[in-house]
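Hey all, sorry for the wall of text incoming. These are the two entities for the joint prediction.
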Amino acid sequence: MENIKNILNKFDMEYVEDYKPTWVKAKLKNKEDILNVVKALKKEGVKTCSTISPTDFIDENKIEVNYFLEDLFNKRNVWLKVDIPRELENCEIDSITPLMPSADWHELEAYSTFGVKFKGHPNLRYFLISRDYYGKFPFRKDFDWKEHEKNLMQNIAEITEEYFDEYEEYEENVGHDGSRTVLNWGPTHPASGPIRLKVYTNGENVEKIDPDIGYVWRALEHLAERKDFIGTIVAVERICFMDNPNPMICYSQAVEEIAGKEITEFAKYMRVILGETGRIASHLISLGGFFGTMGLQTFSMWCLDIREYFLDVLEDYSGARIATACIEPGGVRYPLNDYKAWFESINKAIKKFEDTKDDITDIFMKNPLMNTRAKGNGVFTLDDVAKYYLAGPIARASGAKIDVRIDEPYAAYDKLEMDYVTCENGDARDRLYIIFKELQQAMDLIKQAMAKIEEGISEGEMDPKKDHLIKMPKRMPAGEAVARVEWARGEMLMHLVTQEKATSPYRLKLKAPSVNHTMVLDKLLKGKTLSDIPLLYGSMHICQGDLDR
Amino acid sequence: MFFDIIEKVVRVTKALKEPRIATKDVTHEKMHHSPIFRGKHEIRYDICTGCEACAKICPVDAIVMEPLPIKRPKALPEVNLGVCIFCGLCEDVCPTKPQKAIKLSGGTFEMITDGKDEAIKEYWVKPEVPEEWIQKKKKEEEEKARKKAEMLAKKKAETEAKKKAEEAKAKEDKPANVENKSEAAEGDTK
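and here's what came out:
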């Protein structure tokens, strides 16, 4: 930590201060210094860029760019800020992509939505957002959404036409001789989800992959700004439905930090239970999806069957199975009127999994066909993890000891016994095994949290009918906060900015892991054959909901 | 041989007695039933106060306040089911106690309408307010208003009378005091 501070102090900084145990917050005076700062930090070991989040301060006529840089293995993180002018002509800053490849798509996103030009970016282009927003920079505060939406149908027609033009262009460029062609893998491929991989192939060999994303772009970061602090939970939970409660935990933590409130012990343990239930629900789909993409649907059905029991748990608590909206700033949303019955249904769900566990191990985890195809295929090393910021299970499959639950404990994870779950090889098979291992860890955590709650109730420290929520102020003070959670697919980071006496967020940046996992597909699939695409794509556990937001 | 045949016959007859799964109607039997399932809204016109809290908090603006010809509640919420995301925040903020005027939990999950765009736009939950209830409320309100007016008039009259009396007091000055005393004395004797 001290080393990082010393490095930062060498440059012309407005302030350098500690922020949480694992962060250093600093503000750079001159934007020209950014490359030198990042270079020096990289030498020290901060090799990864988590995300880049511009904030548009229209009253002060400036855009503040926030860099979240992380040293994954030593748990030292830097939050670097720098002001740049707001006018479109001067709104530019040096790109850090040549130094940190993990910043690539995050810079493109900042450019498309805020118009921050990154000088020196290898391929600066409009990206992610719908084509009719190109060049209009929709997340700037002076963009008129209502005016834009008036021409909705015309815009859609134009997008369709452009697609056909692009298609014809490929036909002409590639020609009819030889075996080179451009394949569109998705968005209607059964294994793809709403994403289109433009696969440049020569015969069966993949030469290049160019993911076309943005099919489910909903501008969630902007939607959050239009809602009040409680209503925003329904926007953030829609990042991805597979793991539903965890984004709300992340957002609620950010709001609580700004308001300066501490939630009750009972709510903390409840967040652990709900978060882990969400993780299980997501992992079961990943697990089944891995085989589903290989063409074996039986296991998908098994997993969905088990998942059903965990969704019942969520339904018993919140009244909804998928879009639960069960966590809000100040605790958890509902009281636990009959905690024994709820714990019973959790135990039932866990038992359902335990009963099928042996069969899963025998039939699927030792499956010879899967082993032949996945073993040693698509390997990520520890260097790749740091270079592209692979997060969560993907990183842990390569042996990286990264887990926000342990590195920066939130909710009640610091009071529970848990350890990093890792595999060694980092191939596609390990990315399947790690999911299976984490499922068991999640159930163990749920059991521990349930025991703690029961203990607390019997000792009279917790009241499940009253302790669930503390009162939050309606109007927030000015401030900003960064919250991180270990989401099912990796680290989720939210950067929340509020203004004095605000009733809705001024800016909410959502960083989700699938962006980086899609970014590496080109590296992962280059030189492989077409039949490897579904397998390796499935092994990355990508969800388009959090990829596009 | 003979034993085998008997066993087969027994098995077949047993199987025939089993409930036929394929013909069992499971559409109305829920696999899992949560008593707080957030389903179709129930709006109670008789306890709603028309405070608009639900319309204000709705994150997708699915709730519209439909004005009534009476004063309290002056408007009732109507929910556009094509827009609603069933988050239940409206139920959370509803101030009526102990029952909520707008309620999702325990609601039905059966919501079927035409798949066309217009049909979805026209798919609303509207509280069915009987005409008699409105008339009754109107009458009550009229009565209340009349009573209030009467009270006001009474009060006005009283205050005016008081004023007059005071003025008279001021005019009559001393003799009035004597009169008052004599009155008081009469009251005592009675």
